[in-house]
Amino acid sequence: MKVKYRKNFEKDISKIRQQFVFDEIFRQITAVKECKSLVDFIRLPGVTKLVGHTDCYRIKFGDYRIGIKVIDNIIHFARFGTRSNIYKVFP
Fold first, then answer.
1. Which homologous superfamily does the CATH classification assign to the domain defined by 2-82?
2. Cβ(33)–Cβ(3) under 8 Å?
């Protein structure tokens, strides 16, 4: 699938200081890029559709979340943050 990164996501990623978090984000992005369809994306471990939103998903790993929007079969990585902060800024 086609993947795009929003400026807020890139800004959130630039603040990461722990290497293991950066490695996990890279692994999650690689897994999303390998998906051939939206169905494959939804079946990835940790991916859940957000209640009340038709096009918003999140990927969960540890205490961190990646906010994702799917628009016209293009996956937009929108935000990244901790469990306590991500839902204040995403969606």
1. RelE-like (3.30.2310.20)
2. yes
